[in-house]
Amino acid sequence: MSKVSWKDKFESKSNIRVKKLNKSYWGNPIGSKMLIPSPKVIQEYINNSEFGDKLDVRTMRNDLAIEFNADFTCPMTTGIFLKIVAEYNYEKFKEKKEIEEICPFWRIIEPKSKLAEKLTFGKKFIIENRIVEKIDN
Fold first, then answer.
1. What is the pLDDT of residues 44-71, one digit of tens each?
2. CA end-to-end distance (rounded Å), the chain
3. Helix axes 39-47, 57-67, angle to 10 degrees
4. Cα→Cα distances 33→46, 62, 71, Å
5. What's the gap between Cα 119 and its chain centre?
6. Number of continuous H segments (helices) and E segments (strands) in the chain
7. Which residue ranges make up each domain of the chain?
8. What is the β-pairing status of strands 33-36 and 17-20?
9. In this structure, what DSSP letter does residue 4 have?
């Protein structure tokens, strides 16, 4: 049984959709437009930040909803895809890539978050890079 790589997960989730709700979801009423992003869109958002920027997941979800003409961005898929972005880029880093060649996911993942606890590589990498960039932990 072969394990699917983070790269494959990153590349296979390429469809971006705006779905009109037929039932309320996460406090949003029927008829709302929900963005289902992709890992690539999330990575591009993070890559547009600068050294030392502290990003916020809620702000990213709001910004992406506006960009794609939706009322909100799905929090569940955003979390899943953010994990894929982090795991995929950490995988690239471990393949001897330079830190400048990977997506700076540590700018948006809080070390004390539930997501940081779920990462296969732990939160030490996030903390170390936030210290380098002088981002509050």
1. 999 999 999 999 999 999 999 999 999 9
2. 39
3. 110
4. 23, 12, 5
5. 12
6. 6, 3
7. 6-132
8. antiparallel
9. P
